[in-house]
Amino acid sequence: MIKTVSATDIGLKRKLNQDYVFTADTRVGNLPNLYLVADGMGGHKAGGFASQYAVETIVEEISSKKEEDIFAALNSAIIEANARLRRKAAEDESMAGMGTTLVAAVIENGLLKVANIGDSRLYLIHEGIEQITVDHSLVEEMVRLGGLDREEARNHEKKNIITRAIGAENRIKPDFFEVRLQEGDLILMCTDGVSNMLTDEEILQILKEEVSEEERVEHLVQAANEHGGRDNMGIILLSL
User: Rounded CA gap, 236 and 198, in Å?
Assistant: First the structure.
């Protein structure tokens, strides 16, 4: 049995909330469940449109196509969302340049299957905390090449430059991950409004609190805002 808690928060600095989340504990098309977190980018209202439109397109595609393979279903739905978002941007000058990150998760037979594009993240919490996704960002590439360490990367001036997003290019390539789950695991999906404000250790401490899942999500939002709340937050917490 999966318990799901989700939330979005505008933070303290932004005028609009461009993060969007979707949860379905029951079937979507042939998938047993579906969880999506998106962080939009673009001009006035374009980012909010991009994240919601991409998520709704993905849900619609998965619902209608009845694809059996989870990764194939996610991949084709993300490709379609990318194509539609680019068409929308081409039709409306105010939407030019819009895009969105996406992290998607499905749980089936004890396996967690994940797709991501951009720098929204999925963490697995068991004894400790492990980031399953890999950020598609300029700073992450610099870390991988040895040019930055993790602590420098956290506060780097180019932290927000992402290298892949839905809507950014004609061709899109999500990354896919598969993880075996254990009873008692927690899964956190979040946008960078959370992960840029809180260290992994701070996230772990909050998620290990002896409180309800709803309170853990509330405490994540509160802590991110106490650390500056520089961005919107989109959060899904899944407990097994």
Answer: 16
At 126-171, the pLDDT tens digits run: 999 999 999 997 776 666 666 566 665 566 556 677 899 999 999 9
Interacting residues of 87 by C-beta distance below 8 A, sequence separation 6+: none
CA pair distance 35, 83, nearest whole angstrom? 21
User: What radius of gyration, in Å, describes the C-alpha atoms of the chain?
Assistant: 17
pTM above 0.90, yes or no: yes
What 3-state class would DSSP assign to 99?
A: strand
CA-CA distances (angstroms) from residue 209 to 19, 76, 131, 188?
26, 38, 19, 14
Least Cα distance to 137 among 114, 158, 155 occurs for: 158
Domain boundaries, the chain: 3-239
CATH class of 3-239: alpha beta
pLDDT tens, residue by residue, 40-77 = 998 778 999 999 999 999 999 999 988 889 999 999 99
CA–CA dist 131, 65 (Å, integer):
31
Phi and psi, residue 48, nearest 5°? -65, -40
**d(C-alpha 25, C-alpha 1), whole Å:** 9
Give the number of other Cβ atoms within 10 Å of residue 145's Cβ. Answer: 8
